[in-house]
User: Fold DUF4231 domain-containing protein from Catellatospora coxensis.
Amino acid sequence: MADGTAQQIWWQRLTSPGGAQLPMSVQERLLWYSKQVSRQRITNYTLEGVTVVVAASIPAAAALGASTALTAVLGAAVAVLAGLRQLIRPGESWVRASATLVAMQREAVVWSAGAVPYDGERAETLLVENVESLVAAETSQWAEQRTVRRSEPEQQPVS
Assistant:
């Protein structure tokens, strides 16, 4: 980084036993998922942390004699944060994207070693197909998660 060039990610240095570079489509997928995992992790921790701090400030504000208006605004802020957490679900997205990233990294490493199933003439094609299958599976999980959540009836409080 001192010379002004970006630091290379470890998987960008992988080559096949024959010296071929990791296919560009696989590199693009790995890079996208790496960024997504980081973004989702930061979003998750930020949203959770802010929710905890704001929720904890409600009884503290009340104990310090804050107005009911301020206490109500803090309560409303917690409700909004909880709603955002349910809407964007960064924790679930982070876990799902992380699992997909690790699976893609594994495929790239196995390919670079020339191990089964990447020990034949179609190694590069098979790698691209397998990575795309992982992406398709993750996308299906995301869509299913959204569909299941929307179709679940709202739970009523237990009396």
The mean pLDDT is 90.
